[in-house]
């Protein structure tokens, strides 16, 4: 077997797939590379809560034999992946980021994991998450906070809640990974770790077997090194599941045929000028440069008035998350004898005092707001914003009473889909990110716009220092 001239640790899924399927590369080589890197670097980076080394090697050997025998399960066969520690795998411990669940053994396997395995992908292990997925900074008091690999000296926010997945992919400890997004939890770690994340629409990917935070807002999604990788993973993960009725109402939509159609003639909306207040200058400069890049590619950059400010979605989304989150883990956060993250406990307890009428009113307000925005976005293909107001900040500077999800929560509240992808770096070498929000169930459009932008730049080819 001839090893192709690619860096196994930082190759895209697309590159690995092509090499494996043409037998120029063995899954064994790829898995061994990632396991070796985990052993070398994860002591500091703390991306994984559990590594399934022996099982991954066995799976790689089986994949190698099957592919050589002409029995490939598909384009992702033999490609390694990391899974957020919110996703059940029968017989494995799934803690949901909580020390209180350190011995919680899963009784079922999530549908998305079954799809991963059916595609022949190899699960390297489970990655860290903010406790109960309730937080955007990426910190975890008791289980440990993953180290953002872009600053080897200062511990910076990795983004949450899918913090471990973001760090693992960015640092070359996995070729791709699974996150979940309730208020920005795929997009924020993608932004601060310099990778690409796809926030899917409710019902695109089954949540069966994924520990819930908010059944109204929870959406699993892929995190990877390229837009095309996210499209491939989305294709594999989407589809109907009788165990999740929300997946039965929408026909799967393959984004790959339209991925390379470009943006000429598309109408892309910029955020209102008032939303620029409080955004870091480097982030705004990267945002403006991204708009200009897309304009030069043929897109029409347009302005529009929005019915609400982005800040208005923080509290509106928080009420729904709090009420629904308290339903699932209220007994745990109310038990003061349990080791619950002191930053997470009050966020969940916000739901304790929400009356039924107020909760139902919040859901009703959401539906009305979705109708208002649908009217405002008529004739527009996407809404573009920064993903976060700043690059990653030092963990010691985090104000746990606040949230970095200013630009992301609108996507969950309005049930939109979106892509976060690199669009620059600060003077200190920290990643900056562009968010592309599209109407619900139009992942193909979000990925198409993102691919066009990605191809016009070289941001995704950079890697963290020393790795």
Give a structural overview.
Strand 7, helix 8 and strand 8 form a beta-alpha-beta unit. The protein has 13 helices and eleven strands. The chain has helices spanning 13-21, 27-45, 53-68, 111-118, 163-170, 187-193, 227-237, 281-296, 312-334, 345-349, 356-376, 409-413, 443-455; strands spanning 48-51, 80-84, 122-127, 176-181, 196-199, 219-224, 267-270, 300-302, 382-386, 417-425, 431-438. It is α/β, with parallel strands linked by helices and 467 residues long. The longest helix has 23 residues, at 312-334. The model has no long low-confidence stretch (mean pLDDT 97). The chain has an eleven-stranded mixed β-sheet, with helices on both faces. The protein has one domain (13-307, 375-461): Amidase signature (AS) enzymes. The chain is globular, with a radius of gyration of 21 Å. Helix 2 packs antiparallel against helix 3 (53-68), helix 5 (163-170) packs parallel to helix 6 and helix 9 runs antiparallel to helix 11.
